[in-house]
Amino acid sequence: MKLSQKVAVVTGGDKGIGRAISLRLAKEDADVVIANIHTERAKEVRDEIKKIERRCIVIKTDVTRSNEVDMMVEKTIKEFGRIDILVNNAGISSMAPMVDLKERDWDANMSVNAKGVFLCSKAVAKHMINQRNGKIINNASLAAKRGALFLGHYSASKFAVLGLTYTMAIELAPYNITVNAVCPGIVETDMIRREWKWGRGPAGNDSR
């Protein structure tokens, strides 16, 4: 009953760490909104959550598009009346040495991993300010603490997440809103399994 009557939004909540977070929040009695660019696997997580008698909806959302993010927040407020928790988990990764890194891969990582956190936090924080309460948790990475081989673009995007987290924590504290980041190490997810295949060529994943 720790999160009874709380509403949590999880971006990229369909698999890997995001799936585990969504299920855990539900097991702690929160109602969950899964905001995902791909909805099929997200619906499977939704069905699992409903089996433990918590409410859950899936909203198709590209976190890099402000209009889709704003619509997701509006739908959540309409359905549940509030947002208490935001978990910015959506992220992508690919691997390449810096000298071979394509501009489009740099832009994609920065857009999803950093801009996505900004857009979702901005949209949700406005409602949390009115509530005078809220929690925002950003999924950064150990790569945000140090460089990572063949992951310069990914690492840079996660450093950006940490910088934004510090700023939001200061700006939102007067409204009783806490902002934190977690920096996971290697977790065996679909994305990591793709990275382990680096020897056969660049790998990528999209869990927006």
UniProtKB/TrEMBL annotation:
Organism lineage string: unclassified sequences, metagenomes, ecological metagenomes
CDD domains linked to this entry: SDR_c (cd05233)
Name used for this protein in its record: Uncharacterized protein
Alphabetic keyword roster: Oxidoreductase
UniProt similarity note: Belongs to the short-chain dehydrogenases/reductases (SDR) family.
Example of a GO MF term: oxidoreductase activity, acting on the CH-OH group of donors, NAD or NADP as acceptor
Name of a matching Pfam family: adh_short
Entry-linked InterPro entries: NAD(P)-bd_dom_sf, Sc_DH/Rdtase_CS, SDR_fam
